[in-house]
Fold this sequence. Notes:
By secondary structure, the chain is an alpha/beta fold. The chain folds into two domains: about 1-125, NAD(P)-binding Rossmann-like Domain (Rossmann fold, 3-Layer(aba) Sandwich), CATH 3.40.50; about 130-170, no CATH class. Helix content is about 35%, strand content about 20%. It has helices at about 10-20, 35-40, 55-60, 75-90, 125-140, 165-170; strands at about 1-5, 25-30, 45-50, 70, 95-100, 120-125, 145-150, 155-160. The strands form two sheets. It has a six-stranded parallel sheet with strand order 3-2-1-4-5-6, sandwiched between helices. Strands 7-8 form a two-stranded antiparallel ribbon. Strand 7 (about 145-150) and strand 8 form a beta hairpin. It starts with a strand and ends with a helix.
Amino acid sequence: MNIIICGAGRVGFSISKQLSAQGHSITVIDQSSEFIQKINDTQDVKGVVGRATYPSVLEKAGAEDADMIVAVTQNDETNMVICQVAHSIFKINKKIARVRSQEFLGGKWGKLYGESNLPIDVIISPELEVAKSLQRKLDAPGALDSVPFADGKIKVLEIYIEKKNVLLLIQN
C-alpha cells in the first residue's frame, strides 16, 4: 500500500517505522529538514521537505498513486486541510487525521466531517483515546485491557495468567 504520512515528529516517525516494517511504501512529509533527514537516515522511507497542505508538495510525494494519507502534524487545522486537498485534488481513498481540539469533535459539530464537508475517514484524538483506555480499565478491574465489540455488548478482556495458574495446569 502507498501511504503518505504528513508530520515527522514522534507520532509520524513511529507510524512510518511501523508501516514500513509491515512492507508498505511510505513517504513522509515535514517542513523540518532535520526531521526528514532523521527519518531518511533511520528508515527505509522516502522523505519530502515541504508544507503538506501544498498540492505541489503532495504531488512530489506521490499523492496521485497514494492509497492513504495520515495527517499527524502539530496543528489540527493543517491536518484537516491536508485531508481536504488529498480528497479534492488527488482523490486519495483513505484519509486519517489527528485532531486534538475538542471544539472540532462531537456535539453539534459532528457533522463537520463527511464526504461533502471535510472528508476525513478516521479522526484520531489522543486525549479521547487516553480517556477511553482509562474507562476500559475502570470497567474491567484487573484486566490489562478490554476491547468492546457489537456496540459494547461484547467485551474481550486481556488478562495476565501466571504459569502456575490452576486453569493452565488442568489444561496440560
